[in-house]
## 1
Amino acid sequence: MMRAAALAVMAALAGLAGPHALAEASAPAGRFDGYSGRQLYERFCASCHGSSGLGDGPVAGSLRVMVPDLTRLGRANGGAFPAERVRKAIDGRSVYPVHGTRYMPVWGQELSVEQGGDQAAEAEVARITDKLVEYLRSIQQ
Ligand code: HEC
């Protein structure tokens, strides 16, 4: 009897803690806000573009196209890192392929859906993309 009462109290406490903890966890921060640009890159990009960005990730060989070397984007653009173009390439939603299929995932779409597709999700997608662009800027050779 005592034991059952104690369990009931614990259950009630857990019930109280539950919603509170949830509200805290889903506050303004998005799921990937704790990730650095490097960590985001490792998670979403390295499989194709390679750990160092050279285009030699484990999946690259099974694609029908060359995976670009991301360490030379600045050089290929006359020395200036093309941040806006890179941002659009990653997001992908405003890029219409001139010829053929896009092989890289449309990250803007993928990430937005994964985060719930609402306005907060869009804001997080923008933060993730910013971090990725800055990370790519930092690995230019
Ligand atoms: C499934 C393999 C794959 C993954 C994963 C991938 N990419 Fe790509 N990426 C490509 C391919 C292939 C291209 C060349 C364009 C195309 O065919 O889609 C490309 C093109 C690009 C370009 C354009 C380069 C240029 O010359 O303008 C950028 C920037 C880029 N990727 C960054 C990223 C970032 C950042 C990530 C992670 C968020 C990522 N990619 C994940 C395969 C991939």
Note: Residues 2-138 form one domain.
## 2
Amino acid sequence: MRKPRDRICQHCGALIAGKAYRVTSEEEGISLLDMIVCSLCFMEAKRLHLHAEVVNVRSKEASARNRGSHRSRLGI
Ligand SMILES: [Zn+2]
């Protein structure tokens, strides 16, 4: 199983609570920048006209645990 990793902003080093953002910058097809940042740095990046987008975080919805009560009457 994978542990959910805490996201750290690769720009300012802050722990990212909530949405993470990805900032990329390309010049002539060469990737100059590709990092995950917090919302503050995201806004900063937008001010600098860098390409920035929200990172989709897959949240696990509580599905793994079946509560045992469904079996109720079909006991062995
Ligand atoms: Zn940051």
Note: Helices lie at 39-47.
